[in-house]
Specification:
The structure is a single chain. The protein is mainly α. It contains 15 helices and no strands. The chain is globular, with a radius of gyration of 21 Å. The model has no long low-confidence stretch (mean pLDDT about 85).
Amino acid sequence: MEKGRGRDMLGNIIQMMLVFFWMVMIPAGIGMTWTRWMRRYRHSILMAAIMGWMTMFALAQLLAVPLIIAIGASLHVFTYTWGGIVLTAFIYSIFINRKRMKEVFQYQRERVSRLRDEKYVSLILVLTFISIVFQAVSIAFLWFDHYDDIRYVATAVDAYSTNTMLKIEPVSGQYTGRPVGEMWKDAVAPINIFWALLSKLVMTHPAIFMHMIVPFIFIIYAYFIFAIIGDRLFRGNDKQWAVYMLVLSFVVLYGHYGVHGNLTSSLMTGLWWGKGMQAALCIPFIFALFLLIMDEEENRIYYPALFCTMTASCLMTTMSAIIPTTMVGTYGLVHGISRRKAKPFFYGILCCLPNVCYGLLYYVVKGW
């Protein structure tokens, strides 16, 4: 029995190390290639982590859709291809950013020291930290009140268990050999297949991974995005930014007034759903990029970042053909008119191309 407990503990430690490597280190490392071109966020680990995840999501979307629809490949092919490219990108990013790694960590130490020295700011941020950790622990270990996710979890479990991608109807368990009916949504926006891929990499069953690890990790990343938005809204005023983060954390904690249609439901009820991921991560980050584009209009790196984020949103849900495109199109039009320039609208249209293409693809393949 003692040997069995020892093996279980060792296995849990290995799983936690894999989760930290694939879901924390890899995104932050990849994202540093993006932040090296961002003037204000050149030393931001938060921005690096978010951009790293958007890059990983976008890559998964670009690989998974043709592998599922055109080739009918196995989950192993998707996993090895995506994992190999991501590891290569991580190593490359660490190599080209090796000289500024010291600058990044030095900046983080100075930032923490400055926040600690400001009156009341450190106390407010401690309360915010406690609120966020409580939310992450609650959603991962204590709170589960929405059971309408059988298709999402079953799709990932089938892929994980049978080494296939969307060849088994998730509700009935019938082998179909290809996507049919509702499964075409998952073929064009294969977030559940992506969760199966990550489950393989961190050696965890998809049901556990989607209901515990995904919400725990990504609710923290969502607050990274909120922190970036607050930094731009309050122009670097640390006290106002800290109060904003605290108020927002309580809005999320006590804002559960319905299953759908509010921030709490996206973050604390169904974050592993594609719709929840888009609402909690992609849409707020698109808004953050709007603010950055307006502040640093001459820095063109934010348009490629927006294009990458729009592609990443396509992985989450087929609704990405409507909501993000409406946001970006409206923003490009308003920004272009306010600046009396055509370029913002033109760049916005270009950034919407992935969503339009995948939306059209869905309408084509769902009739097969």
